[in-house]
Model the fold of this input.
Amino acid sequence: MTNRPNQTPPLFARKVFEWWSKKADTEDLLGDIDEYFQYNLEEKGKLKAQIIYFKQVISLSFSYALLKRKRSASFSGYYSTNSIAMIKNYFKIALRNFSKHKLFTSINILGLALGMSICLLALSMFVSIYKFDEFHTKKDRIYQVNTHIETTSDRTLFASTFNSVGEYMAEKYPFIEQVVKIKEGFRPEIKHRGNLLNFSGYYADPAFFEVFTFPLISGDPVNALSKPFSVVITKSVAETLYKNENPIGKVLETNYGSFNVTGVIDDLKQTHFYFEVLTSYQTYEQINPSLRLSNDWVNYRNNYVYLLLKPDTKEQALRESLAQVATRASEFNPEQTITLQSNPLPEMTPQWIISNGLGVGWDLPTMLIFMAVGFLILLPAVFNYTNLSIARALKRAKEIGIRKVVGAEKNQIKTQFIVETIILCLLALIGSIFIFSLIRKEFLNMIMGAASLDISLTVPLIIVFILFALFIGGLSGLFPALYFSRLNPIDTLKGEIKNRSGSISGMRKGLFVFQFFLSLFFIIGVGAIAKQYTYVFSYNHGFDSDNVLAVPFQNIDKQVVLNEFAAHPNVKSITTSSNLPGLRLPIIVEVTPNEKDTLSVNQVFIGEDFIENLHMNLVWGESANDIQSTQNEEPVLVNEQFMRSVAVFEGERDSLLFTLSDGTRCRIAGILEDFNFEPLNELINPLVFRYSLEESNYALLTINSTDIKKTIDDLDLIWTDIDQKANFEATFLDDEIEDAYSFLVNQIQIFGFLSVLAITISCLGLLGMVSYTTENRTKEIAIRKIMGASNKSLYYTLTKDFLKMIMISALIAIPCSYVFYDMILLTMLLQYGQGLGILEVFLSITFLFLIGFSAIYWQTSKVAHANPAGNLRYE
Amino acid sequence: MKGYLGEFEELVLLTIANLGKDAYGLALLRDINERANRNLSIGAMHSTLTRLEEKGYITSYLGEPTKERGGRRKRYFELTSTAIEGLNDMKSLRDELWANTKVKLSL
Done:
């Protein structure tokens, strides 16, 4: 074979290889494959040699040898050896920049601090919930038994378990030290000084205080729950009931019977339990003697079992025993697949999804939604930073150019910007923690059950905050870092940036529109809820609540009180009722209109003149003041809804007659126009008014007086004359009704707060953007002015971009918020509300526009009024 | 001892010792392919060499520009004292095992 030295290997493969290896030193590698090619050319011919050459290139491309060389080539020596000095330098530059651009720094710190404060709240709640139940000394050995039930149609995990599981396991498995059964649903109505107070709590086994670490302030932990009808109350309940008295040994009169107070514990903090009163499990058994709980393998709701295992018990043993119990439970429920699981106490909160959980139920989805809302407020602040950093690119670009010329690499520029942002975020964090501690208390009051959360500033919490600030710093610094590191040094030194710094790029437009969209969304929300609030008070409930004083009078001679009060000159008229109109109605009775079907209706007992005093309208008949109840028929009043519901059972007989579940036969004497006896978020239900002074709880006095306070004092005196033991309390019906709508006030506060944050942040951003873009166009404006542009046309050129963007955001926000508020939120809050009106939307938008325009005007007028000659010499 | 010496690594080290002053990538590859009847690629060869260098068994230096490679230089490899020690350890371990066999190993 002849020697052909001029044969070259495939050029294409070599080019690919050279491109692939980038800066790596591949001289010897290329030499080796070339030489191998020559050798193969002689031995095996051209085609084979070329194929082998390709193969070798591929094998080298993915070999460790090349990888290592590439890696070492990409590190420059002085970057890796001198990083501490560089970081120091970044710090210095960052601080200098902050102090040089005060507007930029303050806008961003303020915005980020406001935005982060909500996130800090969410985070602190997160941290607090994760630390639930960690104070129990035996927490590592306590497990809750959960039940997983699978039927053909669905599968659900319940926190509760079968009634019998507790006792069954306690008997059968020796490794269990203690079993605590807890039943949810102890809701005593305590009669206290003439008032009814409602509390909620659990029925619990005597071992409760042995297994869980809830130290008793007073009382004996071992025997506190050992007897039926004994009750342990929390400190705040003790203070409401027995101020400055020792509650131990006191008797509570409730709708369940009399209870002995056997202990007082501190208010619950940092635990998944949520109760005010705790009674013994035996109480439940005594109240419901017909239930055979220890043999009940069917009902699993509201019944919780906690196991305390003996020390050093293997998880395996527990798992096996639960499997056995589950098999037994399956025998009773053949159509369900039942599995039992154990859940260690510290891991019980928060949970992803569990049904029938005990306590407030801090589940992860709700927390994540809250976190998302916080993030939604924070995002505009992050966008501000991104937008403003790039808007002032013209100023920073020269610095970056020189850095690059001197030898800074892309990575270094990136690190510089990220470090700068992180420092800014840490500064904002300080402000944010300040805001956080200001709003913390207010905020917790707004959330139901949040009183048991402990969100004081602790070291772990602060560490979480700092990590969060670092994360936000990285996030907001990312885009500016990428942008600046890509700048071409030659262009920047010439003073031109190819990114049209005069106008606003597409992405920044998008961010800007999003900010204003959010602000509008929240602002419309405030308007919508505020409208409902005023609507509720101007709304005619169907009765007159002006100047009506409500006096609860359960424990006093009612007839005497009525007579004495009526004698007072300022009391125009007086009546009684069992429930205050405008508030929720708890009493429901069954009504039989035709001796066959039953119907649930609300029942209210009223006194004479109730209809007249509250100016209610009758559609038919008359108020039954003068009709005496005969022996077999009681005269009652009903509302129109009642008649409609009864009409379904079309009675051929007397349609005005019906029977109550207790056997009382009633004759309808009058029909009232439908009115909202309950708050507007409740549907109008069928309603029966019965006349009874005995059952009435409130005296309703219509007052006609110029000196209200004196009248009330007089009434108090009259009251004390009649009976000194009972307390006199008087409230105006209007105030009571207003209290019933306090949930709306809560919503307004939350939305108001969020919208103030969102608006402030977006307006800060707007201010910054306008000031930087006008600054960048200073020369242009000066030339326009010299050429004869009027002030008006200058304003137009400067503001039209922003105008357009605010318009776009309004166009997106209006339909979105309409759908959200009108269809979802408001119907959830108030069923008889008015929905979202055009006026609120219009007002909200005008409000935002006004704020936006004043920000724009403030900045543009500076440039427009400046002397153009001076501006041309600018820079 | 630094790291553990694999069978192939031992083979490469011994081949470097065999080639002496002429131990560069391709020469090693061809020598091993012929002697041990393997079909190695250049990539695998160089990866092993890089690893050996990391472990401190060999050092490398660039030679003079060569005409047959279009003026490119060859990278030559040399054994370090660690490698010599390691090879000796390996050999004495083998010798010991061969000497103590209870089964007849010779063919």
Remarks:
- Residues 202 and 629 of chain A are 43 Å apart (CA to CA).
- Confidence is low (pLDDT under 50) at residues 1-5 of chain A.
- The radius of gyration of chain A is 38 Å.
- Chain A is about 50% helix and 15% strand.
